[in-house]
Amino acid sequence: MKEIDEMTGVQKTAVLLIALGPERSSKIFKHLKEDEIEQLTLEIANTRSVSQSLKDDVMDEFYQVCLAQQYIAEGGINYARDLLEKALGAERAREVIGKLTASLQVRPFEFIRKTEPAQLLTFIQDEHPQTIALILSYLPASQAAAIVGALSPDKQADVAKRIAQMDRTSPDVLKEVERVLERKLASLVNQDYTIAGGVDAIVDILNTVDRSTEKHIMENLEIEEPELADEIRKKMFVFEDILSLDDRSIQRVLREVENNELAMALKSATEEVQNAIFSNLSKRLVTMIKEDMDFMGPVRMKDVEEAQQKIVNVIRKLEDSGEIVIARGGGDEIVV
């Protein structure tokens, strides 16, 4: 893990949530936006381990920033700076105030930068040309260009002219346009969280991380976003899903798995899963694996889950290479 000075805001927040634990973190998630939950979930999933010293550093910085926010609310930045200098020293006070003021400087219409141009067009094409020009002037050129290109010919020239002639806009006007547009896009943003590929991205990660990390992430999502958690589970491949593979695919997978790992993975498997695997092995090999399972006696669940995850990783590798096909429903049924 990086030192705290080298970390991004998302990385620090992920460490903070890990340090706070699932119960407290779940309460924080209730106040976050969908895209923030997506970013943090991915970051937490990618965080392998966090030292206690790093947790302490992040918690300290979080406390200092909260303190600065409170002081700013009470008397402004100069008032906050004076109090922080007394509490933290001049240098540290400047750093905290600098980070806080930088985080407050958000570009107008930041919330629509991830929206697909075609979807955004649906919501703004009937607005006044001046309003469209104002919105487009704050978007990335590629996004704005896609929207301009889809406008009616007469409106294209009008909007282009207004963008070119635009100079300064009152902050009050910007805030009002943002408020109206954000309200219109509220339902669209909720849809975008799944449509934009966030679900597929987190599924790929959860299918490769260790089971304890997977469980931690899914437990949090089940509290905060039960529908999203259900969507993720439908797309995930876990060890028990080996039942969805045909015999040929199971045989191909088993050729990549060591006998001792298979024996470990089957220790906690259901009878149905065991039968699906044993039916694709020779009788001699089945006898050997059953003897290995009996001989190893009680084992740690962690070791069983690691063995199962290795087999899942083999399955995903073979799927990626096209050697096997996993039927996931929704038109993915296999036709021989």
Question: If you had to describe this structure to a student in words, what would you say it looks like?
Answer:
This protein is mainly α and 336 residues long. It has 19 helices and no strands. It has helices at residues 9-20, 22-29, 34-46, 52-88, 90-104, 117-124, 129-137, 141-150, 153-165, 171-184, 186-195, 198-206, 211-224, 226-235, 247-254, 259-265, 271-278, 283-296, 301-320. Helix 1 crosses helix 3 (34-46) and helix 6 (117-124) crosses helix 8 (141-150). The longest helix has 37 residues, at 52-88. It is flat, with a radius of gyration of 27 Å. The model is unreliable at 188-197 and 329-336 (pLDDT under 50).
Question: Radius of gyration in whole Å, from Cα?
Answer: 27 Å
Percent of residues in beta strands? under 5%
Strand count: 0
Low-confidence stretches: 188-197, 329-336
Global structural class: mainly alpha
Major β-sheet profile = none
Annotation field: number of helices: 19
- The shape, in one word, is flat
Oligomer: single chain
Average pLDDT over all residues: 75
First-residue to last-residue Cα separation = 48 Å
**Considering DSSP H and I runs of 4 or more, what fraction of the residues is helical?**
over 70%
Helices and strands, in order, run as HHHHHHHHHHHHHHHHHHH
Task: Give the SSE layout.
Elements: H1 9-20, H2 22-29, H3 34-46, H4 52-88, H5 90-104, H6 117-124, H7 129-137, H8 141-150, H9 153-165, H10 171-184, H11 186-195, H12 198-206, H13 211-224, H14 226-235, H15 247-254, H16 259-265, H17 271-278, H18 283-296, H19 301-320
